[in-house]
């Protein structure tokens, strides 16, 4: 049986009229641990067309088109990396202005981070995406390994 559980405290969130749960600000993440069969996910739902038309920009910081685009990128990365156990990291920048970073950590834990391209340094630091030296490393300018290792530590 697959268990879904929260990891630590939620990030900054917004209340949107008509939605049952708060919406988190990027970066969004998905963390899958095959040993414990648990998934941690802060990726918001795809906005409903009626809600998006009634209140443009009130969604999770992304449009319905952005959400479908990012989901398609995630599925593409997962389908391409599932058979190759040696691949450890992959990053893609979407044509709609989103970075999707995937990483396989020790123990087989896999993580995906989704963030808007060009986020400022303060937002990156608040999310734990800046390396210990203060430098921005890796594709999209973030320290993705440090970010996911922090999530895994928070899950223990």
List strands and helices in order, with pairings.
Blueprint: E1 3-4, E2 13-14, E3 23-24, E4 28-33, E5 38-41, H1 49-54, H2 64-81, E6 89-93, E7 98-104, E8 110-116, H3 121-126, H4 144-155
Parallel strand pairs: 1-5
Antiparallel strand pairs: 2-3, 4-5, 4-8, 6-7, 7-8
Number of strand segments: 8
Q: Structural class per helix/strand content?
A: alpha+beta
Question: How would you state the average pLDDT, rounded?
Answer: 74
Q: How far apart, in Å, are the first and last alpha carbons? A: 19 Å
Question: Total helix count?
Answer: 4
> Please, how many domains?
1
> Could you describe the largest sheet, including whether it forms a barrel?
6 strands, mixed
Q: What would you note in describing this structure?
A:
With 156 residues, the protein is an alpha+beta fold. The chain has one domain (3-155). It has helices at 49-54, 64-81, 121-126, 144-155; strands at 3-4, 13-14, 23-24, 28-33, 38-41, 89-93, 98-104, 110-116. The protein has a six-stranded mixed β-sheet, with helices on both faces. A hairpin with a 4-residue loop joins strand 4 (28-33) and strand 5. The relative contact order is 0.17.
Keywords, separated by commas or semicolons:
two-stranded antiparallel ribbon, 156 residues, 6-stranded mixed β-sheet, globular, alpha+beta
What is this entry, summarized?
The chain is 27% helix and 22% strand.
